[in-house]
Structures are given as structure tokens and as C-alpha cells.
Specification:
Number of strands of chain A: 9
Shape of chain A: globular
Strand content of chain A: 35-45%
Number of helices of chain A: 2
Helix content of chain A: 10-25%
Oligomer: homodimer
Largest interface: A-B, 27 and 27 residues
Radius of gyration of chain A: 15 Å
Largest sheet of chain A: 9 strands, antiparallel
Chain lengths: 178, 178
């Protein structure tokens, strides 16, 4: 992403937070993470993140997605004997988000994936989250999500976050901040 | 608390959430916890809580306080060799909250404690939290908080919550839901 892309993305994510009436500090806005997962297609495959807290016990973030933006399929693997992998709870705060997990494939899913990326999306059990809805994902389970037509703001509560360990279905993905 | 008190408290807490534009489900509203800490003085010493998630790794709650309502002084003690006690992050979402922790006493603190309870409040280092502000409290540290004149809504992100183990400065307190 170019600097201009990043500025634009930050602005859009901030507008989503404003719509959700969620206040962040100036420092949090400046440190907001915009990731395109190394695919250089941010508006389609990307995510904006404010990390409120991430310590060795728990983590809390706000995730902002522009309309139809997708966080690509991945899982949080077991890290050690004790750490069975990151566990996370997604809570929709604003907009609508379609979360996909392993299980019976949903017949007519709401998410739309561009043709060229389809082979990297294998979990098709749909969970629709609207404001006040939440879902807790067990560790090491494949998942991905897409915002609806208005975009979405999603709170993520979880165990410690170590993004660099995430395993993506698409081998071209590099999980680095832009 | 009588059933009428509880209904009234639930209604006030729901109104605070509405002001903060935070959506909860009908089930969450029905299961909302109103505690008066066994002191039967809920409007002054009490707290309303929505538990979003509490598992063996992390916990997320929304705390609602009516104007000037106080969560009394307590700490989350070490539980075992591995569990050094609950660690928590308070993030103000709406209103204003005055958090007090161990440290240099603040000269003219904003919180006002009724005379008869004062002896049970010993930590007077003040941290003022407004929307977008947050503070992470180390385990086993004494703390308490009071909402400002408009009330407050505070997100709590933490390690696993086991309220029954909390140690309160006031020995008359019983940490049971009303």
C-alpha cells in the first residue's frame, strides 16, 4: 500500500468507528494497523485494526471493514504444549459481518468472493453477525469473514494475539502491517 | 435488592448502554447482573454488568454505572502458582469514570465517598477515564472506581473472571449477584 492508500484507509476506518459511535484516542488512530495481507488488493482483501490491549494473557481489538472487505481464511495454530492456539470471540458492533467456519456448507452464502481468490476459501459454514451478536471460535479452526454492504465494526476479544503465527490458506499471503 | 429494584436497575443500565450506542441482545439484557455487593445500597455502591464472554483464557464485560455509583475497593488475588490473579483493562466508552489505584494519593480527588464508607477506601491515586481512555491494572492491586455525574459505560477486557475470589476492603461485602 502506498502512503496515500494508507491515509485513505485510515480515514475510512475512522469513519466506520464514528458511525459505530466508538471513540478512539489520537494515538490509537495514528497507530491503527491497515493490512492488505501482502496481496495489494486492500479494498477487497484487507482489514483495519485498533489494538486496545495485547498482553501475555488476553487481547482486545476493534476490527473495521469497508463494504464487502474480507479477512482471508486462516487459523491460529497450537503454539506449545500449554498454548493450544489463539481463541477469539467476534462481537459485531455496527453493520453486518458474515463469518465462515468449518462445518456444513451454507447453501446460499451471503459473502461474495472474487473468482481468482475462491480456491483459497474452504470453510463455508456461515454465521451472520449483526450488532449485539457474537461468536466464539475454538483455537486452530479455519475461519474468514466479510463485511456486508455497509461495512462493519467488530470487537475481537481473545487470548494473546501473535499475528505472525497465523496460517493462511492462500500461500501468497504475508501477514505484515502495511 | 427487591425484584422492583432489580427491574429498575436493569432499566437504568440499559439506558446507559443506549446512550453509549452499545447494542446488547435480549438474552444479555435478561441475564444482566446487578450487584449491590450485599450492602443494600445499590445506587451508591453497586454495578451492572453484561458478561460477553468468560472462558478459561479471557473475559470481556460491559460495566454500567449510574451517576456517582461506586464499585468498592477490592483486589484479584493470586490463585495458584501459574495464575497470578486476574489482570484487567478498563476502557471508558461513555461518560466519565474515576479509577483509583495504589500510588501517590491525588490531592483533590473527583470521587465523593459517603462518610460511613470512607474507611473502606484506601487507594487514592486517581486516573480519570473519558471515552477512548483506558488503563490496565496489574494483578492483585487494590482498586475501585466511581462514575461521574452522568454515569458511565466501561468495557472490561481481562484474564478469566472468578468474582467469588475477589477480596474487598469492606469485610461486610458479599460478592453475589442480586
Amino acid at each position: 500500500m502506498t502512503l496515500k492508500d494508507i491515509r485513505q484507509a485510515r480515514q475510512k476506518a475512522s469513519q466506520l468507528l464514528q458511525k459505530a459511535k466508538i471513540v478512539i484516542s489520537r494515538e490509537e488512530k495514528e497507530n491503527m494497523e491497515m493490512t492488505d495481507f501482502g496481496l495489494n488488493d486492500f479494498e477487497r482483501l484487507g482489514l483495519s485494526i485498533v489494538v486496545y490491549e495485547n498482553n501475555d494473557r488476553y487481547c482486545a481489538k476493534e476490527l473495521m471493514l469497508v463494504p464487502r472487505q474480507t479477512c482471508p481464511e486462516h487459523r491460529h495454530p497450537r503454539m506449545s504444549e500449554k498454548n493450544i492456539g489463539k481463541q477469539e470471540t467476534f462481537r459485531c458492533r455496527w453493520g453486518e459481518v458474515y463469518l465462515y467456519v468449518i462445518g456444513d456448507s451454507t447453501a446460499a452464502p451471503k459473502a461474495v468472493i472474487p473468482e481468482e481468490y475462491k480456491k483459497y476459501f474452504t470453510a463455508w459454514h456461515e454465521i451472520i453477525l449483526r450488532p449485539g451478536d457474537q461468536y466464539t471460535l475454538p483455537p486452530d479452526n479455519l475461519h474468514w469473514f466479510q463485511a456486508g454492504d455497509e461495512g462493519a465494526v467488530v470487537s475481537e476479544f481473545s487470548s494473546t494475539s501473535t499475528d505472525e503465527n497465523d496460517i493462511f490458506t492462500n500461500p501468497n499471503i504475508r501477514r505484515v502491517p502495511s
